[in-house]
Structure formats: C-alpha cells, structure tokens
Amino acid sequence: MNVICICADTFRADIIGPGKKLSFVETPNLDQLMGESVVFDRAYGEAQPTIQMRNALFTGFRTYPYRENPDHRGLQGGFGWHPIPSSRMTLSEMLFEAGYVTGFVADVFHMFKPNMNFTRGFMHWHFVRGQEADPLRCGPIDTVDLRPHLPEQEVDDPRNAGIRQYLVGVQDRRTELDYFTPQVMNGAIRFLEDNHRRAPFFLWIDSFAPHEYWDPPMYFADRYYQNPDAKDFILPQVMNRIHEKREADVERTKALYYGYVTFVDKWIGALLNKIDDMNLWDDTVVMFLSDHGTELMDNGVFSKNGHGPRNYNQQINWTIRMPGKAHAGTHVESYVLSHDVPATILDLAGVEAPEPIEGRSVWPLVTGEAEDLHGDTIISSWSHRACVRDREWAFIIDTVAQDAEPELFHSAQDPGESKDVASDHPEIVADRRKRLEDFLGGALPFTYVHEPEHHGVATLGRHLQIREKLGMV
Question: How far apart are CA 213 and CA 119, in angstroms?
C-alpha cells in the first residue's frame, strides 16, 4: 500500500472532533478525515519538543533517555536535540530498500540544519524555507515594521531580532499561496502528480504550522476575534513578558493560533482533495500526526516551554485512515507512543524491518490481537523534564537540577493539570520518582549520555549579539 503521513507541528490534541476543549476551532477537513479513521485517544510523544520527537518518528527508537551523543555543532543546545545518529536506519531507508518511491516535503527549519540526517532515504525532498528564524534573507531590515507585533517599549529591543528576521523573510508575500502551508501542501501534491503511477510510494509531509510565529492570513484570525486596538503578537511568548495583559490582546493572540489551525486545515483539505481526484484512497494509508501541543493561557502563559510535559503539550494527534475506510470510527484507549509510528507503518506496508527497532505496531490494538503495548504507565520527557503518567496522575520533575521540586497533578480530576498536589501525596511522589529512576537506571539528578553544550555553536543568542553589533536588530 501507499503511505502518506501528515505531521503538523504544535497542533493540540483537543481540537479535532466533537466534545473537546477547542472543538469550536474550525477544522472541517480534519474532522472528516478523523471520522473515516482509526483514532488513538491516548497518543503521546515519548520525547519532545521538535527534534526529539522526529528522531523517534523517523527511526522507531526512543529518544528519551538521551542515550546517543552525535555531533551537534551548529545546533541549539538541548537534551536530545541532535541529528539522527548514523547508526540508526531510518524509516524512509527501510521503505526505499523495500521498493517504495520515497518523498519528503517540509518547512520545519530545524530538520534541515547541517548534518541533521532527516533527508536520508528519500528519493525526493523539498524544503520550503523561511519559517521561524531561518535566515532566508538578511535584509533590507528597514522594510519591516515591528510595531503591530510588539509593545511600544519593546520595538527596539534586541530580544526581538528573531521577529524582524522572520518578517524580512516573508516581506514579499502577496497572496495566500505565498504562505508556507500552501507551499508545503502544493509540494506534496506535486509529488503525488509525479509519482502516483509508481506505486508503492511513501510521502512524509511535515508542516511547521501552526507553530509560532502565529502568522496566518489575518482574515483567518478575524473569524475568532477582531479588535482594532489589539496587537498581533505573532510570537506569543512576547505576551508572557507583559505584566498586566489587556484582555483584547490575550483574545487576539488566541485567535492567531485558532486562525492558523483553520488555515492549516484548509490546505490539508487541498491535499485530501487531490488524493480524491487521483482515486488513491483504495490503496493508500493516510496518517495525521502532531508532535506536541502548546499552551493558550491554560495555566497563565502562552507557548509550550513554560510548563513542559503537561497534558495539553504532550498529548498528540494520531489517526490512521485505511483503504476502504476499514475500522473507521474505532477509538483506541490504550497508550501509544511516538516511536511506535515507524513499526506501524512497516506493519501496514507489509515490510519487515531489516534490523530490530524499539517501537511496536499499534495495529494489533485495532484488530483486537493485543490489549495494550505499554501498560498503564508511560514515561516521557520534555527536554530535561520527565513525566511519569498514568490515567490518574502525572508526576513531573526536572531530572538534572539539584534538589528539584517535583510536581504532581491528579489528571483524572484536573485534566488541565493546573493544581500541583505533590505536597498532599508524598507516597505517590515517592513511588513515581522510583519508577523514573528505575527507568533511567540511576538516581536523580541524572547525567545523560547526551550533554548539550554551546561551545563554538551559532546559537540564537549569539546570532542576536552579532546582529546587534552589525545594526541588524
């Protein structure tokens, strides 16, 4: 069978489908796709955010607990934020060796940095440039106006050089087709047009949207909230620096995210329509995935890194639409993890992995041949913070800090994970800490094999220093 995987960065798991916290956000195309698919209701990233997640998605091996330490010169520091190790065979390489035409279309800037290895095994790959801090263009810098996106006192703040860099890169946009998401989806459509008669094919589509900058065509955001006095804080972290937030700015910032999600859904719909036009549904598996969520003032801040592995960040979308809509409407309640994706694709494609991988196919959960894969408890991470999660509790702790204070959330009663009850349940804290230490094979604080460092690395902070020196902020 053909396999198409659509991965959307920073796409919360409580949007698609009815009865969820953010179901009011318009996603008609993904709603329809979900209705025709198997849905995994307890899918989680085993390690996050962006690159940690994709290491697992592309290899079938757990990234956490950071057992590899390949050269990461030129990359930002962060536990597990490194290239695919050369010792790991990738999913695309396995499918290529099995006779698949392999394609990769993405605008995820980080996957294409030097030596990252994410293009290995793809016969065709297409990188849509310009997202986030990708230095697509360095100037002219006086052509962009930061005032609509920042508080007045921050317009000349060097911390916001990244916003200027982004705006310089997108300054020539004129129509909706010039935005990143249409370029990614149209690149995927071109691959299908070129290769649909060369079955079987494997196509991985990785959309950075709706990751910040939250910058869709603004009429999409206007659907959710419009106020001429509100700022368009396309980098939502800016809002976290404002002590007294105006309600209009908070609601408009949320609307930027909602609108970006709807924009992404529209263009995924264009891809799905092309699959329909080409009559590919009868021999093609279509997966929709996300790598993590984000915080929309759920617990007082915007964006994801403030609270790390809480549920609204760590839960992911995972749906599988089979030929003939087989098993459509099935909801799987067992835990599944991101490194299970490659094993599942290989299973559905009828391809045996040429070497062992850690992830397991989730398909036996659908057919009833298995009841669970990972038991009642999963262990995951967000950089240096780890989470021990079951259906009742979520235990979170900084694994490298001395004397780190743990957090405990009674997720069954507090699904937003907003009230830390660690002090009320010392016995549960002790039990979950021991489970984590047993998993790591050592006591906390723990020392990982991968030890990120910044020596000689062109980090974003260093970029800002150089740009300030050159008058480019």
Answer: 25
